[in-house]
Amino acid sequence: MAASARPRRSVLYMPGSNARALDKGRMLPADGLILDLEDAVAPDAKDLARRQIKDALDQGGYGGREIAVRVNALDSDWGNADLKAAASMKLDAVLLPKVETAQMVVDAIAVLDGAGGDKNIPIWCMMETPLGVLNAREIAFADPRVACFVMGTSDLAKDLHALHTMDRTPFITSLGLCLLAGRAAGLAVLDGVYLDLSDDQGFLASCQQGLEFGFDGKTLIHPKTINAANQAFAPTETDINWSKRIIDAHTQAQQQGQGVVVVDGKLIENLHIDNANRLVSMASAIADLEAANR
Questions:
Q1: What band does 257 get if pLDDT is binned at 50, 70 and 90?
Q2: What's the rounded Cα separation, in Å, for the pair 233 and 209?
Q3: Biggest alpha carbon–alpha carbon distance for the chain
Q4: Residue 261 falls inside a structural domain
Q5: Mind giving me the DSSP string for 55-119?
Q6: What is the DSSP pairing of strand 188-191 with strand 266-268?
Q7: Mean residue pLDDT across the chain
Q8: What are phi and psi of 259, to 5 degrees?
Q9: Phi/psi of residue 171, each to 5°?
Q10: Neighbours of 21 (CB within 10 A)
Q11: Which of 42, 49, 138, 217 could form a disulfide with 16 if both were Cys (CB 3.0 to 4.6 A apart)?
């Protein structure tokens, strides 16, 4: 099963307690926004953040940007109220933090549904603890509404006692397990944030590595990184042209009763066509999204 072709090249965290940030989000070129009620919001500002996020989403104006709201954990002092508030918001997804079991997903959905929320609201899951990573498969299949894994590499580093290195070797196992589970369940999977905002080259290398790993895009902590992420995770013109060529060649071969075809010395089979169709569909979806956000 394949993840949605909806662009998620750049998904920016924005604190729900910052009204100016919520307003600015309407003009940023990010594919998606995570309006945060959790880490970015102080305990005494949780109520304010809920109200401001709801008001901002009621006002609208976010174009085609995908809007997720990250709530606090259900076992925290704020999680229950966050989920009940989210049930009445005009959002695209609810992001659950520190998901460690399938039951945590089921419990959160029960609160959302009990509060009168849309029973089709997609659920995104932060994968940011060792237990969560080990249970990635059961979390991915916990409910049909689970739509996306979001890697939380900062918290994961803390729990693993690991270091943030350029090659991210300490996270290879965790990233791989979540990608395997996510793809098996047909989920989107988003890479974790890059923390050093002064290191532009390091950020670009992180995006390139994330693309090579197979992530759909990157979560971000500052607007200045949006354009670089958009470019890194978008199909290149060369990719699109090649994809269209092999799709056309394969179609002609099938019409002639041939199952495979050779293009520029490369053997083209159905698996290559599946990927080519994915890239062409993504390029079209990106163009539509950018038009909607103008």
A1: confident
A2: 10
A3: 69
A4: yes
A5: HHHHH---TT-EEEEEPPPTTSSSHHHHHHHHTTS--SEEEESS--SHHHHHHHHHHHHHTT--T
A6: unpaired
A7: 96
A8: -90, -25
A9: -110, 0
A10: 21
A11: 49
Report pTM.
Answer: 0.95
Which residue range is the domain that position 260 belongs to?
A: 237-292
Are the C-beta atoms of residues 193 and 12 closer than 8 Å to each other? no
Q: What's the rounded Cα separation, in Å, for the pair 219 and 161?
A: 22
Total domains in the chain come to: 2
| DSSP letter assigned to residue 3 | P
Residues 26 and 70 both lie in one domain: yes
- Per residue in 210-244, pLDDT (tens digit) is 999 999 999 999 999 999 999 999 999 999 999 99
In a domain, 116, yes or no: yes
Place of tokens 């569909």: 281
266-268 and 261-263 strand pairing: antiparallel
- Structure tokens of 57? 């989403």
The percent of residues above 90 in pLDDT, for the chain, comes to 95
Non-local CB neighbours of 168 within 8 Å, separated by 6+ positions: 153, 175, 206, 209
Q: What is the DSSP string of 243-266?
A: HHHHHHHHHHHHHTT-S-EEETTE
Query: What is the spatial distance between Cα 13 and Cα 69, in angstroms, rounded to a whole number?
Result: 9
Measure the N-to-C terminal CA separation of the chain; round to a whole number of Å: 32
The phi, psi pair for 69, rounded to 5°, reads -115, 120
